[in-house]
């Protein structure tokens, strides 16, 4: 019953636990601070550990043998997704500063627009695409987390991100990828844990949020979702059609905000403390974008595939 409910809610595996954690932190904060395993598992103290293990497990799904096959198709989607998110976020940051514009933080913009929901993309490609589209999931997994956000912030000078911090962020992914390529059985054993940990990441992140911030940032989060789908999506579809010579349905499929992106502001705040005051607000805005894009991206992908074609529709 609980699992069915979570699956019906857009990004429910992340959003519902996040809201539960935020509710507890807002109204019963002392309950999360009783110590020992309870605090380590259910409070914000466990966020970094949960995220690190999740990145490691996701890394095991990246198979080197898939890379040549999907490099062009997935690479266009990956690079265009990053470029549009970085361009918008950096422009806002340079002009308006860390606080962003109209309450929409720079950190939230870069975190949301540069990260795509890989599981949503894969579901779309199984419906509309072909095997190569599905295989591109391995490459697109690279933007499902804090790496590209940190690269954008560091390269723009908006954040002080030392190389060792970037290295520390990707080491779990790299180690996971090495193990997943060396031993297929280990890959099959570890890869499901990436999804299993999503509720725990959501809960621990929510435990660092006060719901009063959610009420303040709701409209900005919706606006962020619209930016991700329509501004980001249009650019990605343009690149997919012009550079990749593809119909463009895959471009809309990556015009989402990853559930894991909710963890990105916290990861940035841990590395560069100057962003710490914006983490809670950015997290709620990114969480709203996850929901908005999970609703709108399927509509746009279906519309585009029917109008401009896709492998599955061509078979009909």
UniProtKB/TrEMBL annotation:
Q: Which UniProt keywords apply?
A: Cell membrane, Membrane, Sugar transport, Symport, Transmembrane, Transmembrane helix, Transport
- Any GO molecular function: 2-keto-3-deoxygluconate:proton symporter activity
Query: Would you name any one GO CC term?
Result: membrane
Domain of life of the native organism: Bacteria
Q: Where are the transmembrane segments?
A: 9-28, 40-62, 74-92, 98-124, 136-155, 161-182, 189-211, 217-238, 250-271, 286-305
Q: Which InterPro entries match?
A: 2keto-3dGluconate_permease
Family the UniProt entry places it in: Belongs to the KdgT transporter family.
The molecule here is called: 2-keto-3-deoxygluconate permease
In its UniProt entry, the species of origin is given as Fusobacterium animalis
């Amino acid at each position: 019953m609980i699992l069915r409910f979570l699956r019906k809610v857009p990004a429910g595996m992340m959003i519902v636990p996040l809201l539960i954690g935020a509710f507890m932190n807002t109204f019963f904060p002392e309950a999360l601070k009783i110590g020992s395993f309870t605090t380590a598992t259910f409070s914000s103290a466990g966020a970094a550990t949960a995220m690190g293990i999740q990145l490691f497990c996701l890394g095991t799904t990246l198979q080197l043998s898939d890379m040549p096959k999907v490099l062009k198709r997935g690479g266009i989607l990956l690079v265009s997704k990053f470029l549009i998110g970085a361009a918008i976020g950096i422009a806002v940051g340079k002009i308006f500063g860390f606080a962003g514009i109209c309450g929409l933080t720079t950190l939230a913009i870069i975190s949301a627009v540069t990260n795509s929901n890989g599981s949503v993309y894969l579901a779309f490609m199984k419906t509309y695409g072909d095997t190569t589209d599905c295989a591109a999931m391995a490459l697109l997994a690279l933007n499902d987390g804090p790496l590209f956000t940190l690269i954008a912030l560091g390269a723009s000078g908006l954040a002080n991100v030392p190389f060792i911090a970037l290295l520390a962020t990707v080491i779990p992914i790299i180690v996971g990828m090495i193990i997943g390529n060396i031993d297929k059985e280990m890959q099959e054993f570890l890869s499901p844990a990436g999804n299993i940990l999503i509720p725990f990441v959501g809960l621990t992140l929510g435990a660092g949020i006060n719901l009063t911030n959610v009420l303040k940032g709701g409209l900005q989060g919706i606006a962020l979702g619209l930016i991700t789908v329509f501004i980001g999506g249009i650019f990605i579809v343009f690149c997919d059609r012009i550079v990749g010579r593809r119909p463009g349905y895959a471009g809309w499929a990556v015009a989402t905000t990853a559930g894991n992106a909710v963890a990105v502001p916290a990861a940035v705040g841990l590395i560069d403390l100057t962003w710490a005051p914006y983490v809670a607000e950015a997290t709620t805005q990114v969480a709203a974008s996850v929901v908005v894009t999970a609703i709108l991206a399927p509509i746009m992908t279906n519309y585009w595939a029917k109008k401009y074609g896709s492998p599955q529709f061509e078979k009909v």
